[in-house]
# Entry
Amino acid sequence: MRILELNETTTSNILESLLKRSPNSYGEYEGRVAEIIEQVRKDRDKAVFAYTKQFDHADICANNLIVSQQEIDEAYEQVQPELLSVIRKSLVNIRSFHSRQLQNSWFHNENGIILGQKVTALDKVGVYVPGGKAVYPSSVLMNVVPAKVAGVSHIYMTTPPGADGKICPSTLVAAKEAGVDTIFKVGGAQAIAALAFGTESIPKVDKIVGPGNIYVALAKKAVFGHVSIDSIAGPSEILVLADETANPRYVAADLLSQAEHDEMASAILITTSMELAQKVSEEVEGFVKQLSRSDIISKSLENYGYLLVAKDMTTALEAVNEIASEHLEIVTKNPFETMTKVKNAGAIFLGEYSSEPLGDYFAGPNHVLPTNGTAKFFSPLSVDDFIKKSSIISYSQEALEQVYPDIVQFAECEQLTAHANSIKVRFEDVEK
# Structure
């Protein structure tokens, strides 16, 4: 990995490079995605089945679109008991964490005025799960559990089938364990369109969540407004902030844990120690030779891998906050103290035994995180993403009488006389 001195120019150049990976930078695909969406809106099931045949080479129709109970039972037979045990342990942790995020409705009553907030779960949510070569049962858990904890009534999952019309067993088992109501064998932009607008077989939902390829990301972007979405996710990222106390072998291993995702993944070390940077570089070189996805890792590191040496921790933290990485590991002498100075990060891992994959699979916090610098204004997926809030307002006659002239004045200032009148008519006798 390349070792560079960290300064304003370095940070600026890296940010420019990283932001080019955003789905917002792939306009050439938008026309094709728009075409797919429009076709699904027009022909509904017919279009969904045709695109599934074209892209996934699977013969799907109304009779086999929904995963059957028999298929789920067969999936349980194929999944190793040890993996099922791990999925269930992970579920306990994820549920426990997200249960702490629950919000309650509240009301305040004083002097004839009742104000409050009513919290209501969304009714229907669609969860997209990648298929094909990608097998992500962990993503199923992370997207479904907060929706279940929030109280969502109906959770529908879509995932592309293989050419044989089957879904990966571990994906089906994870979905069943997490509480998905219905699983549809459809993927790609056509799945997003079906969930957004509804077809004869697939219901229209209120919100769509879950990761996918560039077509899925752009489809979610295109249907936003017709439905809500979680985010338009970009490639995975990890940033490790370390000082001279860090173990270079651990740091190198953690950087590669994200670099193996795909060739556009980003792996960055920011450190105050040139010696650490050099040792990490050596460790990375050794690991790459023995890891199964070495070709992808090498390309990822070539494109978006950096070992940055800062003159001091203040400079390092400025870069950390500017990059606003999806995953941030802090491996310093006092990581909790360092963490208090971090403003922008999707998930923060503290200490040398809090490796990023812990968050991907098991700890409990959600692994659906803001990417491409959006941690400056977005948060991880949570229970909050599956609820909506209604404001409650109730005034007694006496309470409104105390303030109605103020409201009338405000309305008349804006020349909205009907607004003013709707208040004044209640006090016509008073004004006479």
Observations:
- The first strand starts at residue 3 and ends at 5.
- Residues 26-229 form a domain with the Rossmann fold fold (CATH 3.40.50.1980).
- Residues 81-99 form the longest helix (19 residues).
